[in-house]
Amino acid sequence: MVCALGIEGSANKIGIGIIRDGEVLANVRRTYITPPGEGFLPKETAKHHREEILGLVQASLKEAQLKPADLDVICYTKGPGMAPPLLVGAIVARTLSLLWEKPLLGVNHCVGHIEMGRHITGAQNPIVLYVSGGNTQVIAYSNQRYRIFGETIDIAVGNCLDRFARIIKLSNDPSPGYNIEQLAKKGNTYVKLPYVVKGMDVSFSGILSHIEDLADPSRRRNKRKKPQDEVDPEYSKEDLCYSLQETIFAMLVEITERAMAHCGSNEVLIVGGVGCNERLQEMMRIMCEERGGKLFATDERYCIDNGLMIAHAGAEMFRAGTRMPFEESFVTQRYRTDEVLVSWRTD
Amino acid sequence: MVQPNSINKTNESTIRVPFDSARHAEIAFRVLSVDLEPHRNFVQKKLSLEGDVLTVHFSADQVKNLRTAITSFFECLLLCQDTIKQFGAPTLDQNAGTQPSAHTA
Q1: GO biological process annotations for this chain's record (chain B) (predicted)?
Q2: Domain count, chain A
């Protein structure tokens, strides 16, 4: 029996989760929301996390109706992510580990997402599409590693959406991606955008520049183009959101399908914050059904960064015998998914 | 600008932080010893422990770097102290969940 407490704070969410033998006991979270047009910066985000984290630890213990003595292991996000917010989680995890005399485990954020998704949906050996504000990867398991088959070569898909939301001044509450999704439902005219798939990899920064120009021509960076040369038609925000979603999601579906064909897999699991976008799920489901496959996805409680996924992945590692010396409980901004030895899977 | 006679001299700062008990001081010492100073910061940080007092010594070529290192150290120290304060009391709040300060997300 493993009872684990997990602390996640690699981006603008701070979350604590408690899991006991796969049973969800607590999952609490707070999000740092910035005004429209602004993104979240490391220092301010860390400040937000510092103010919220201890209250959340209390809340999670209360929700789980547990005493600290009931826990077996404390887990925290080791990386990847922004260093100052990551450090907030690490400091509290270390202190609790020593105060309560419980072992401490650092968990890879991406592996946390994958394991949580597998656990909630019951997917056995899926192709994983991990899409969030900081990561875009197509992942398949092989020989004790989660191997990256394709990824973004510049910005993450969520970063592209978030930054577009800033340009058109959408609210960041509850998340910019959610508000884009709602606007996109009202769009009906497809605006042609660049479609950038390079082998198994994708690129979003060029698409972002292009659509930024369409949304707000006054920001145009290419000053050599004389304004009178062309009269851009006015596009509505709704149409731009719709077109952006259709284009970038089609790219993701394409590389996921290719990974399925390559691995001979008929399961797809979508994880990460962008994974709760219903249009992405719908497009992926169509592709899966055409291939006789099955799509697995979770809702916002488990898709969006949460402490529970760190607790769950940590519990799996702990059960398989993984231990970490206290001196190695640092954080790291870069920590690739395939660096982790998946000791808890034997298939 | 840097005055000529201050070049190559070291700026130093020592902070002494007392704790409720030697155990809590040792916890803070171990928690805060993990993180190394960033390479490009050019600051030397040394933590030591004397009973219930945690001592941190900083040295740097530039005052500006010293300030950066101390500021970020204080943020970590305060968070560690707050955590000890809320969760460190022995037996007193074994029923930790009953404190009123938290809400569910």
Answers
A1: tRNA processing; tRNA threonylcarbamoyladenosine metabolic process
A2: 2
Place of tokens 């190695």: A328
Indicate yes or no: CB of A58 within 8 angstroms of CB of B84.
no
| CATH number, position A281 | 3.30.420.40
What per-residue confidence (pLDDT) applies to A60?
98
Instruction: List C-alpha distances in Å: A21 to A119, A126, A312, B4, B50.
Output: 11, 22, 9, 65, 42
B49 touches chain A (CB under 8 A): no
Contacts of A328 in chain B (CB under 8 A): 34
For residue range A229-252, what is the model confidence (pLDDT) as tens digits? 555 668 999 999 999 999 999 999
Q: How far apart are CA A164 and CA B47, in angstroms?
A: 45
- Domain co-membership, A257 together with A271: yes
All structural domains of chain B, each given as residue ranges with its CATH number in brackets, are 8-85 (3.30.310.50)
In a domain, A344, yes or no: no
Query: How does residue A222 score in pLDDT terms, banded at 50, 70 and 90?
Result: low
Contacts of B102 in chain A (CB under 8 A): 28, 55-59, 62
Contacts B88 to A, Cβ<8 Å: 99
Does any domain span residue A120?
Answer: no
Rg of chain B on CA atoms, in Å: 18
Tell me if A82 is assigned to some domain: yes
| A8 pLDDT higher than 50 | yes
